[in-house]
Amino acid sequence: MKKLYGRSLLHWFDYTPEEINILLSLSHKVKREYHQGKRPQRFRGQSIALLFEKRSTRTRCAFETAFGEEGGHPVFLSTADIQLGGKETIEDTARVLGRMFDAIEFRGFAQSTVETLAKYSGVPVFNGLTDTFHPTQALADIMTIQENFDSLEGKIVAYIGDGRNNVATSLMIICAKLGIECRIISPESLQPAKELLDQIQACCNTKTVVSSDISASQGADVFYTDVWVSMGEEEKSKERLELLRPYQINQEMMSRYGKAESIFLHCLPAVVGQEVSKDVYEGPQSKIWDQAENRKHSIKAIMLAAMRGKA
To answer: What is the pTM of this model?
Structure first.
């Protein structure tokens, strides 16, 4: 655990499979503690700055409750509250917050912002989402998959929809690190960039399958999707809906290409009737509420490893 102490989480490229598995094991441990009613107060006397440029339900609630119930003091700061990138440079904000807080979480637009915070603050910085990556979501995803299957070995994750958004990108990376076969099924115009695929293969020696054909989901253990129109792209709604309509995850698709034990995941919020049909969303194969809860436990694990160096 010492190797994770003081570490920022900006994306999963910087973490080894061993380190990711340490975080997964800790995630399951703190979830068990939570459901047993244990509150060890491991963040007592510590504080974290939660910087939000974008609205959030799961990320904000996960960081606040995970930190607060362990005795720490989370401080929510929106762009309406501080001078982030306004009258004050991001570098200077990082320096100030690093003198006052034990860690920083950032959820916003540019990946360069969270990287600048990490470079200049001197404390661990956690990426709660940028336009490029969503690493805390990916850890909760893998945690949920582990809860439903005995082993990750040989598992196939089919991500269907917008294959170049932050959720798909982080899912590809963490799957490649852990040896999980990830299949991105998207229209050609929404497939991940070749540079990203090359980077994944170079660091993991694992090839991510990319296809525009729905049948590429054949045999998948996990069917995963996200909204068709990401935050900040609302002007493309009509175009996206027309382009992605054939990529809706519905019961017909899961029955045809999946297995009896296949599960459905969604990072939420969802637009039911667009990227997923109601029968799948509300059906027995849907594990989305476990997945949402696991954001809290996996985020707690990330913070414990970086801020305490132990569970």
So the answer is: 0.97
Residue 150: how many CB atoms within 10 A of its CB? 6
Per-residue pLDDT at 187:
98
DSSP assignment letter at 193? P
pLDDT digits (tens, 9 = 90+) for 210-242: 999 999 999 999 999 999 987 777 888 899 999
Q: Which residues are catalytically annotated?
A: 107, 134, 137, 226, 267, 295
Query: Would you give the distance in Å from CA 119 to the centre of its chain?
Result: 22
CA dist., res. 1 & res. 5, Å (int): 7
CA dihedral 123, 68, 168, 133 (to 10 degrees): -20
Burial 89-111 (b: 16+ CB within 10 A, else e): ebeebbebbbeebbbbbbbbbeb
Q: Is the pLDDT of residue 1 over 70?
A: no
Dihedral, 116, 61, 293, 70 alpha carbons, nearest 10: 90
